[in-house]
Design a protein that fits this description.
Layout lengths: L6 E3 L7 E3 L3 H7 L6 E6 L7 E6 L15 E6 L5 E6 L1 H18 L8
Antiparallel strand pairs: 1-2, 3-4, 5-6
The protein binds zinc ion.
């Protein structure tokens, strides 16, 4: 997907540009306030830029730039959404814990699960 966005001068004498990111882009990209975005490309010469998100783990705060991140996400019928973006260590821990707790709670169940 592509968006065409306008930059505006920060008007503080710094020469900085402000790039406002619309909500539909944030949602499509899975970005949220506080995310760290890296800019690639040459904006000054009218070229396209690419924004890459560096997700920080919602549990331990570790950067997931090198490994990528896992998502534990819910979209409830009442419209509520919640979720966590996790580093590999926290994601693996969550997965292993869920499986182990499930197995323990059904240890003495009759028949196949
Ligand atoms: Zn983590």
């Amino acid at each position: 997907m592509r968006w065409k966005l306008m930059c505006r001068d920060a008007a503080d004498g710094s020469g900085d540009l402000i790039l406002e990111l619309p909500d539909d882009l944030l949602q499509a990209a899975g970005w949220k306030a506080g995310d760290i975005l890296e800019l690639e490309g040459d904006l000054a010469n009218g070229g396209a830029i690419q924004l890459k998100n560096t997700v920080l783990c919602d549990v331990c705060g570790t950067s997931t730039a090198e490994t990528g991140h896992g998502v534990l996400q819910a979209q409830w019928r009442d419209g509520e959404r919640e979720g966590l973006r996790l580093c590999k260590l926290c994601f693996d821990y969550a997965m292993a814990t869920l499986r182990r707790e499930h197995e323990l709670s059904h240890l003495f169940d009759e028949g196949e699960r």
